[in-house]
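Reviewer 2 asked us to include a model.

Predict the structure of this chain.
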Amino acid sequence: MARHQRGRARRRTDARDHLRAARRVSRIRRPHRRGVPGPRVRRPRRRAADDGAAGDALAAVARARDSRLGARCAGSATRHRDDRPRDRPAARGLRFPARRRPGRRGARALTVRRGLVLVLALAACGPGALAATPVPANASYTNLEFAHVGDATLRLDIDLPDGEGPFPTLVWIHGGAWVETDRTGGPAGYLTRMGYAVVRIDYRTSYQAKFPAQLHDVKGAIRWLRANASRYRLDATRIGAWGQSAGAYLAALLGTTAEVKELEGVEGNLDQSSRVRTVVDWFGPTDFSQMDTHNTVVCPGVIGLVHHDEANSAESTLMGCALQTCLDAVKRASPITYVTKDDAAFLVMHGTKDCIVPQHQSEIFVTALRAASIDVTYVSVPNAGHGTAEFFAPAIDAQVNAFLERTLKR
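Predicted model (structure tokens):
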């Protein structure tokens, strides 16, 4: 019995000893390495000078930046008393080995990390610091603001061809009865392959503003392009315009009103010229006052004969008056009024079955251009309506290409 009690007491003592030992062990933190027991190794506190690879990499970036770009890029890390980056990757939890010499795999990882820091730091410099970098071939710029008038923000897109530039530039002016706002589309694809820069521009609709606001807008775009020509590798001496329908009307005004100061508008870069060197006019109106007089082609379907003199017509809406009630204003808005001997070269194309804009509009305009000894080519497109498929035939492309090669590209 006594032996049994002594055994129980010994087991209790052993249990207490184990408990005390367990408590002592529990006070010792083990490193996270597969549960191997051992005391916690307290690492020395990281000092500011111990940036190691992170500091070296960023210092190399700074040296490369200063030598290649010539100046500190905007938004780069500021420096304080010890001349080290304040916003270091190491301070954000990106740990780099600073003391232990890395093995083979560690060295490879360190190299990758250093390269990553270099790439990220250079990327942070932004496009302003990398302005000297060549613009890639076939570059496109979209939604560039060239003017802000009232509540309207006017933008343009630029498509560049292969090559170094500066490139001959063709401004595409979309049609749509002066109410369409979509500037996309046009001949940009094949023109860039031929070596032209193509620019698509906005202009205010007739619901937003009356004439001459639309002409002010397109002139403002031409002046903006000249002011920014070197930035986008454009040739400021070789700028032309191509428009269809309502856009052709504005292109024709660009080609005939270069020296008419009252039509320039106030949309910036007034020290630049709005003159264009060449114009491609696809079936645009040229004298509003004569449109109904020579309108003989009936549109198919339910449209019937288009009456331009009515107060709600596209032309009257643009002018803000029924055409025959404001003939002086109509004359000031017609391209044919401004034809002089120093106008741009013109390629005029019109379909024989156009029921929207009478072919007579192009015929009288070509006659006036020839009388002023302007370089003009006129193409009457058989059986073509208003912008129908006949205008996209290979023969038409060839004539446009030959004209642009002669008047704009050379």
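The longest strand covers residues 234-244. DSSP finds eleven helices and eight strands in the chain. We have added this to the supplementary material.
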